[in-house]
Amino acid sequence: MNEGNRRRTPSDTTMHHVKITTPSRLHFSLLDLNGALGRVDGGFGLAIAEPNFQIIAERATSIDIATSVYRDRAIAVLQRFQKVYPFPGIKLTFESEIPMHCGFGSGTQLALGIVQSVNVLYQLELGVQELAQAVGRGGTSGIGVAAFHTGGFIVDGGHRFPEEKAAFLPSSAVGDIQPPPILIRYPFPELPLLIVMPNCSRIYGDTEVELFRTLCPQPEWVAQKLSHILLLQVLPALIENDMSNFGKALNNIQTFGWKRVEIDAQGSELQLTLDYLQDTDAFGAGVSSWGPAICVIAEDIDGLKQETDAFLKTLPKGGTCFITQANNLGASVVSG
Questions:
Q1: Mean pLDDT calculated for residue range 296-300
Q2: How far apart are alpha carbons 157 and 146 in whole angstroms?
Q3: Is the sign of the CA dihedral 161, 140, 132, 155 positive or negative?
Q4: H or E element: which one contains 250?
Q5: How many Cβ atoms are within 10 Å of 270's Cβ, its own excluded?
Q6: How far apart are CA 332 and CA 55, in angstroms?
Q7: 95 Cβ partners below 8 Å, 6+ apart?
Q8: How far apart are CA 118 and CA 173, in angstroms?
Q9: Rounded Cα–Cα distance for residues 12 and 7 (Å)
Q10: pTM of this prediction?
Q11: Per DSSP, what are the bridge partners of residue 173?
Q12: Measured between alpha carbons, how far is 294 from 308 in angstroms, rounded to an integer?
């Protein structure tokens, strides 16, 4: 989160409430689940404006959460943070929420949004990396933490293996590991993005952990191929604003390695939707993390949205789609 996103008021030293608006993150791919070079994980992704958490936080003498979907998780985050950085209490009201287990990184954005509100209200003066480590985020990917901090297109460098991280596991299962270094942060073009969400499985918890345990390490060639695509296709396309080649890279990434594991775990609806989108005039489409969210880049987003709405109605369980854009600033803080 940039300081430019934080607008102080004259009463900042005695503030009693704050509003935090987080981005979501799209995670296009992990880079290395082999570890032959002494690092694991790594990855690249993008912060987007919607969906988001909008959290109103007020000072209080106890923990008071005014939400139904995220109440238990919010309390757990605050209690964990309170053990490390004691504070009297807080009242949280959620004006908008990121859907859970859909590929938007809701866990990291929720945790950081909540503890950033405590950080600001009680003037703890902690950095985003310190906040992330205190609540156990960034143990696999650094994209969500960096999306909250700065927004934009992000590449992270993974963790030292096995000294820093000794197992192939998601953040929720590895304990207190510092978020990985950010290698590249670059602003993404201000163009509309279509997010498509077929109604299918949700991969998380024990199911996610078991997939990591049984299907890792991945072959070394997977990391080599992904790194090649990132360095000589994704990044040049981004810097040259060449969305056609950026989309081609996304399409390619869906066909091998860990991304195939993520897609196959969801069942046929996700693959059918991906096939449909890649057969349209879109430049490309890529599943975020375990999905089911798919990011689509196209020239005529409005027309594609109408066509995709009709397609989703043909699926047994249906689905939804909406238009958003990149967030190049990170989370915003308005205090008073």
A1: 97
A2: 12
A3: positive
A4: helix 243-253
A5: 25
A6: 11
A7: 54, 55, 56
A8: 25
A9: 9
A10: 0.93
A11: none
A12: 12
Map tokens 């008073």 to a residue.
336
Residue 3 has pLDDT above 80, yes or no: no
Residue 301: helix, strand or coil by DSSP? helix
Q: pLDDT band at residue 14, thresholds of 50, 70 and 90? A: low
Contacts of residue 308, Cβ cutoff 8 Å, sequence gap at least 6: 194, 196, 276, 277, 296, 321
Domains of the chain: 3-335 (3.30.230.10)
Single-letter residue type at 284 = G
How many residues are recorded in the chain?
336
Residue 65, number of CB atoms within 10 A of its CB: 19
pLDDT for position 202:
85
CA atoms of 131 and 306, how far apart (whole Å): 41
Which of 252, 285, 336, 255 has the alpha carbon at shortest distance from 19? Answer: 336
Of 4, 6, 5, 1, give the one whose Cα is nearest residue 336: 6
Structure tokens at 205: 């918890």
Residues 83-97: pLDDT tens digits? 999 999 999 999 999
Distance CA 322, CA 309 (A): 9
Give the Cβ contact number of residue 41 at 10 Å.
Answer: 27
- Show the CA angle centred on residue 46, arms to residues 44 and 52, nearest 5°: 140
**What's the Rg (C-alpha) of the chain?**
19
Name the amino acid, one letter, at 72.
Answer: D
φ/ψ region of 27 (left if φ > 0, alpha if ψ in -120 to 50, else beta) reads beta
Distance CA 146, CA 151 (A): 7
Handedness of CA 272, 290, 42, 153 (dihedral sign): positive
Residues 6+ apart with CB under 8 A from 49: 23, 24, 324, 325, 326, 327
Alpha carbon distance 97, 113 (integer Å): 11
Q: Which residues pair with 157 in a beta bridge?
A: none
For the chain, the farthest-separated pair of C-alpha atoms sits apart, in whole angstroms, at 57
- Cβ-count burial 166-201 (b if 16+ within 10 Å, e if not): eebbbbebbeebbbbebeebeebeeebbbbbbbebe
Distance CA 130, CA 184 (A): 20
